[in-house]
Fold this sequence. Notes:
Elements: H1 3-12, H2 22-32, H3 35-42, H4 48-61, H5 64-73, H6 83-97
Helix pairs in contact: 1-2, 2-3, 2-4, 2-6, 3-4, 4-5, 4-6
Amino acid sequence: MTTEDFMQSVAGNATPPAALPPIQQSLWWAIKGNWSRAHTLVQGIPEETGSWVHANLHREEGDLANAQYWYARANRHMPANAIEEERETILAAVLAEG
């Protein structure tokens, strides 16, 4: 799936495609604006990329101490760019992973 395909899915559907892996579903809901659903999904993803998504969500929430914890688990630093810009970077990385 390309980034364009993913974003068209977000814009054109009420729910994510069933075939999306949980990390992609979490990003789908985050981009769609459903923080709670995105957070629930990402809590079960232990790898670094899941922690990166988790960090981004807590940054959006404004819980920066919790975000810092998750950035550390992802071996990353909290960026200064906009949350949406970071999310685009995360999405590109997740889609490249497959």
